[in-house]
Each structure stands twice: as structure tokens, then as C-alpha cells.
């Protein structure tokens, strides 16, 4: 009976995905309910949750599901199973009682007691009235079918493979994203989709990249470095970006959350009930806030804290180093965008990077994000230093020989530099930007600001990507 019901549910979900475009959005929203599929194997210390492997107990690999021989019932250590669905488990040692909470369900069980309280009702745990919770290796072991059904789910036992498949609802909660939108997301996120390269890099910053089921890397990121860091990159489907999302691809991937930026795709996803969460990192403080939020959303709080500690420490080191430069001696900096006559207004990340690096952005008084400027305007600004981004189509040689720029101080003094890139260009609003700020401060004030860039680069990529940068790449980036 349970197998037939489970298959029916799967069939309904498949049909819903195939026909989603033809259904009214209200019906689609009702159909899209993230659920947890948990597979446990008797004797195995790991379980699979929505396609990803997790330890049943991080501290003790001997904690495994068992079959109690006398009752012939499967028992599982319940804590991590329930918590990975976003539910909660409370243990009261004095009473030897465990409380399971998931969505609207509350289940109270007592070790050795064949009765339980389910949503306020007293019930038998099993038709065999000997079946009761027990303790093995200091873990409360619960009869698995009863636990699943009491929490609004299903349990299926496969005798041949000795596996238990649980289908449980996910505990949902309302959160506010960085753009002020209210979003309903699972309390515990397992399957992650991204619709922007920035959001993808934030996933890496908290060590949750192995949970990506859809990811936007962007053409600029899909290079040699990222391929070496993350071999899975070309195996993960893309689903467009914040301006236009492929809804069918997203629905088929069954994400717990879709991480994106502000754009038209938010309305697309809202219409079908996908849990879309918008990030922004353009303004001061937003990058660290974004990493902190990402850690909380994905359950990688410790990893996020470690990454934030590194960023905070290094940004303070940069601030201390450039503080010795007198305000009157601070250099005027022009940052080029995709071309030499394209730059960034004061409301874009590059302006704050210049300020943090001890310089003064010549375009900081402008608004409008990415803007076109005339050669005459660059002459009026007369920057001391010109920074070309890694995606600027004009080369250093092009700028130095451009007849329209010969009277610009940066050109006259040959102070035109290209911002490095490894995974992404170091001027982008992602964690790598601290390396760009450090590099910029040294380029502006080489006699006063000194960093061992090879050490800093190696440390950063090990911390944020778990990757050892090859010696040849280190040498090129440290120039």
C-alpha cells in the first residue's frame, strides 16, 4: 500500500513538472512543496538526503540503523534525519523522553514505552506492543515507520537491499532576502540552485558547492581555474540568469532554494512557487552580510564564520596599511569597464574598492552604475592611475598609444595596470575582491604598502575553494 502511494505521489510530481506552463500559478504554487527523500541502509553510517550524502552521526560512525531481531522492526537514530528536514529534536534525559517536531506535528516518545503522544493523542507505536524506543550507543533509536508516519510522511522498506526510504515534509519558514522580499524557504536547505555568478561564488564561500543542482557560473568564470577547482562545473545544468530563468530546468532540479539577484526572473519564479532568494553585494558591507546569510540559509554557519574572519582580518590589514597615506597624497583612479571609455559610477562596487585601496575614484560623484564617458571627460578628470579590468577589451598598449589620452597623467607616467583574474576578475563583488583591493593598494603606493601576494593568494584560495593554486599561476597573479 505504501509503495503504491509513494509511486502515485512521484507520478503526480512528474506530471506537474511537465505541464507546469499550462497550469494557473496558484495551482502550481500548491503543487511545489519541497520534500525530503531520506534513504538509510541498515549497518551504514551514512544516509542520502535528496540525492546528497550525509553522516548519520558526525562524531561516531558506529551509529547506524539496525533491525531489532525480536520485533523484526527497523530502528533508526532519528536526530539527524529530522534535523535535515528542518525539524527539531529535543531530548530530556531525566524522563528519557524525546520530542520530535516537524511542521504542525509533535511526537513525544519515551525510551522503553510502547505508547507515544502524537499531536496530543496517545497511540501505540506498533501493532506489536513490545516495540518501543531504545538506546544504542547513547542514541535514541526509533521505529522508523512510526516516526515517518507520525511526522506526516511515508516509510518504505526494501528487504533485498535492506534500505529504508523516508519521504518527509520539509519544515518551511519565512525569511527576508537582501532586497527586502519575504521568501518562504525550507529551514534546512539541501538542494541549491543559483541564477547568478555572484550567488554561485557565495555558495563556494561557505563550502556548500557540492549541494548545487543548478548553477550559473557565467562565461567569465568558466575558465581553466574554475575547471580545476570544481570538476563538476560542466555537469551541472544552467537555468538562465536573474533576467530570464528557465523555469522547467529549475522545477526538474527540485531545488530547496534558488539564489539570484534582483531581476525579472524573480517574478517568473514567484509565479510557480519556487523559493527565490535575492542577494546583492554592490554596496559597502553587503558582501560580508551576504556570506553570513548564505551560511545561515545552507546550514554552513561555521564555514561562513571562518571565511568572514579571513575577509575581516585582511581588510583591516589593508586599511591599516593605507592609513599612512596622507589624504592630500591619495591618487586619483579611473577604473575602465568593458572598454577604456566605459567606467563605474559611485554606486558600484569598484568605487568602494578604490576607496578601500587608498585611492580616490574620479567617477565617484556620478550615478547610474555602468556608464559611458567621453575622452574629454577622462582628460578633465586626469587620473593618476588607470585600472583596466580583466574584461576590458582595450590593452595597456592600446591605452598608452591612444592619441586622445596622451595628456592624461596616468598615460604620461605609464601607470596603467590590468586587474588580475583567477576564478573571476578581482574587481567583482565577490570574496576575491579583497585580493583585488590588496593588489590595488600596492600598485598605488608601492613604497608604502607591501604584501606578500603569493602567500595571500595561496591562503585565500585554500580557504574559500579548498584549492592549492599551482606555482606557475601564483607567480603570474603575484606580478
From TrEMBL:
Transmembrane segments: none annotated. Residues 191-448 form the Fe/B12 periplasmic-binding domain. Gene3D superfamilies: 1.20.58.2180, Copper amine oxidase-like, N-terminal domain, Nitrogenase molybdenum iron protein domain. Pfam families: Cu_amine_oxidN1, Peripla_BP_2. One of its GO terms (biological process) is cellular response to iron ion. PANTHER family: MOLYBDATE-BINDING PROTEIN MOLA, VITAMIN B12-BINDING PROTEIN. This is Fe/B12 periplasmic-binding domain-containing protein. It comes from Candidatus Cryosericum hinesii.
